[in-house]
Amino acid sequence: MTELERALVTLGRELDLPPVPALAAAVRPRLARGSRRRLWLALAAAVLLAVAVALAVPPARSAILRFFHIRGAQVSIVDRLPAVPRRGAALGTPGTLAQAGFRVLLPHGQRPDAVYLFTGGVWLRYGSAAHPRLLLAEFRTGGGALIKKVASLGRVEYVDVGGSPGIWVAASHVVYLPGGEPRLAGHTLLWEHGVLTLRLEGKVTKSQARAIALAVR
Known about the structure:
The protein is of the alpha+beta class. It has 2 domains: 3-58; 66-214, no CATH class. It contains 3 helices and 13 strands. The protein has helices spanning 3-14, 24-56, 206-214, and strands at residues 67-70, 73-78, 93-94, 114-118, 121-127, 132-140, 147-152, 156-161, 164-169, 173-176, 183-185, 188-193, 196-202. Strands 3-4-5-6-13-12-9-8 form an 8-stranded antiparallel sheet, covered by helices on one side.
C-alpha cells in the first residue's frame, strides 16, 4: 500500500458519515422484475417473428391454420386421416318434415325421399337408403360446433354461398356427427342460412353443391 492509500484509509476512519442504507434488498426485486419483463418481451417478439416467417412459407401454413370454422361446424386439418370403419350414414330416427321443429328448407322445393330426426335438426335423404344421391342436414345451433370433420391438407376451403359463409370439403374425409359414429364422407358443403346451419353431401362438384345450396327455400 502506498503512502497516499494509507492516508486515505486513515481519513476514512476519522470521518463521521451516516450509515449506508440497505439498498440491495429493495433494488434486487426491481431488477428481477425488469429482467422478467425484458425476457417476456423477447419471447413475444420471437413468437411473432416465427409466425410471420411461417405464414410467408406456404408449406408451413398447415402447422398454424389448423381448422376451418363456421357456426355449428368445424373442420380440422391433419396430415393423415384417422382410420375409421366404412359404414353407411347413421342419420337418426325416421320422421316427417313437420316434426323438425322449424321450417325445413328444400332444394328447389323438392321433397326428400326420407326424413330423419336428430337432436336439434333434421336429415333429408334424396335417393335410396343404399345409394343416396344427396344427404342434406339442417339444424339450429347456439354457436357450439356440432359437426366435426377431419380432412387432409389442401382439401378444404372457405366459400361464399349467397353472401353467407361456407366451407367446401373435397374428396374423402372423416365426419363426426352428433350422436353418431365417425365415418368416411364424400364431397361436402357446409354453410349458414339465417338461423340454420346446413350440410350437403353427395357426388357433386363445388359449383354443383353451391347451386343446390342457393336453391334451398
